[in-house]
Write the structure tokens for this entry.
Amino acid sequence: MADFKQDAKQLLEDIGGPENISAVTHCATRMRFVLNDPAKADNKKIEKIPSVKGTFTQAGQYQVIIGNDVATFYNEFEKVSGKTGVSKDDVKAASKKNQTLLQRTMSVFAEIFSPLIPAIVVGGLILGFRNILEAVPFDSLGGETIVSVYPIWNTINSFLWLPGEAIFHFLPVGITWSIAKKMGTTQILGIVLGITLVSPQLLNAYSVASTSAADIPFWDFGLFQIDMIGYQAQVIPAMLAGFLLAYFELGLRKIIPEAVSMIFVPLFALVPAIFIAHAVLGPIGWQIGSWISDLVYAGLTSSFRWLFGLLFGFFYSPLVITGLHHMSNAIDLQLVADFDGTNLWPMIALSNIAQGSAVLAMLILHWKDKEEQSVSLPATISCYLGVTEPAMFGINLKYFYPFLAAMIGSGLAGMMSSIFNVTAYSIGVGGLPGLLSIKNQYWGQFIICMVIAIVVPIALTFVFSKSKKLNKMGVEDLPTPKLGS
């Protein structure tokens, strides 16, 4: 086991001492600090510490990339600093003082959708696999599909619809639960509210367009009527309803005596929230969501879609640095609900691949540098599997020119993806395995885009490494690579 005592002491000194630390915790690969004075952190010195693979600031937190040994490093840092770690939620709360209004807004999106991502990724893979089973005719099967020839696969296909439907049709339940969790309110009430938005007694959202106005069921309250419409897969209505319930509960806790709060807070928070969700917020949220998805879809399918794809692909990585990329999750899910697929997510997967390719080029350029390899190799692998942070913050931003090469490669790949109209079933694994979430008729086109996202960043990284303006080291300081030795 590595000894991080000296590195922990050095980090404490370079970050400004214990008096500069307001809060500290760690996640899977990073130390996460809220600093009283971020300017006191010496980035150059910190990044020279052997166990540090990079630094960056995001959402008001100063983050130091350690890698898989971060838990061990964190324990040593606690000992030498005398700072006891706090929960991630406490760090997030403390970091808000360093955030702008826009950063706080994007942080909310991140906290809502991050817990849902694993399920959504699994759902996207399941939909892709089911499509291969039920919609792809094979010449070897006489032009028939797998489910039509093999009863066992028909059974498996039917079984897999259970998680597929649970993840996407009942998405509002996950959203309202996540909002309750984020707001510190009663999570079971969030779940119940979500269920009322997708109840079987309501007209399914997917059937609304094909149902005449006269046939839509409704509740008759005498003076007015409310349509009994479900909000399956809808994002904005669920978010509006979830926040309404949370603020109702928080407000009621302040005015209802504690002795009876267990009875009356849930009652007076949940029932009005359900009513307002169906009477007001649901229809408004549906319309807002439709406007957003229509606008994005228009950009993705217009005659200028090549420009949309080029710009989105080019600027997506900088958006990740700012945290603004979290908004894309909501847009992707709304596109899936409205158009049965998303053209946006394939470009995100291509951006991840491009960042990984730039790091791969750096691995080749620095092939004799064992310290650099210890960062570049795992960063390349994780990036190709959809986790970009070690690559972006550990290597690409450190040298800048590979980051620029990746942005250009991502922009070109995104442009081609838009021209080809590549569509995914939903959000998937954001790297090479992302192919499994792409609709099968676009596999060939997406593979072409992946080749662009691999070849262009590698080639440009080699070219840019020879530019004195872009290369901080100077190409003459790099060892000459001897491939295959």
Summary: Strands lie at 21-26, 30-35, 54-58, 61-65, 218-220, 225-227. The first strand starts at residue 21 and ends at 26. The chain has three domains: 5-94, 169-293, 305-477. The chain has 19 helices and six strands.
